[in-house]
């Protein structure tokens, strides 16, 4: 078993919620998203207050993904433009501790993460995956599903240090030797 450092991404390494920022990016460029905004605000509030189970999160996002996301077409250029604007929100502390063996485990979708992981030189990461044709989750990397995804993809890795901003990651904390809570640029060992 190889010991590794594992990091949440949103509000841990990235100063914000990637999906929220990406939706805000689309609000400025595509008026069709506006009809989903009220429901997306409710989802964001419930997520922030930890009021979701995995099943409820899948259900909450379903109408947005099936109604809007599947009709976006190729998002590659928009993802690049999004990160051109938002890459500056990567917190500077991470570059000082980054290792080649690091693994990012994030609820953000892989089609958004792919570009920033490439830019940051991160080779190992897991995000939520969505079927582009149906808008249904292939994998929702959220709550206890993060642990399941981690063990499926990295069965030979052991989490020596885990960094997160949220108690939503309690399941990941439970399998790590050491846990660090990240608030802005302040890092506090909690386990």
Description of the molecule:
This protein has about 190 residues and is α/β, with parallel strands linked by helices. Helix content is about 40%, strand content about 20%. It has a seven-stranded mixed beta sheet with strand order 4-3-2-1-5-6-7. A hairpin with a 6-residue loop joins β3 and β4. It starts with a strand and ends with a strand.
Secondary-structure topology with pairs:
Elements: E1 2-7, H1 18-29, H2 37-48, H3 54-67, H4 76-86, H5 92-97, E2 103-109, H6 110-120, E3 124-130, E4 137-139, H7 145-153, E5 157-164, H8 170-174, E6 178-183, E7 186-189
Parallel strand pairs: 1-2, 1-5, 2-3, 5-6
Antiparallel strand pairs: 3-4, 6-7
Helix pairs in contact: 2-3, 4-6
Dominant shape = globular
Mean pLDDT: 90
Report the sheet with the most strands, covering strand number, pairing sense and barrel closure: 7 strands, mixed
Note the total helix count: 8
Secondary-structure element order, as H and E?
EHHHHHEHEEHEHEE
N- to C-terminal distance? 21 Å
Strand residue percentage: 15-25%
Please mark out the parts with pLDDT under 50 across 5 or more consecutive residues, or reply none.
none
- Report Rg: 16 Å
**Which strand order does the major sheet show?**
4-3-2-1-5-6-7
Provide tags for this entry.
191 residues; alpha/beta; seven-stranded mixed β-sheet; globular
Concise synopsis of the structure shown:
Helices cover 42% and strands 21% of the residues. It contains 8 helices and 7 strands, in the order βαααααβαββαβαββ.
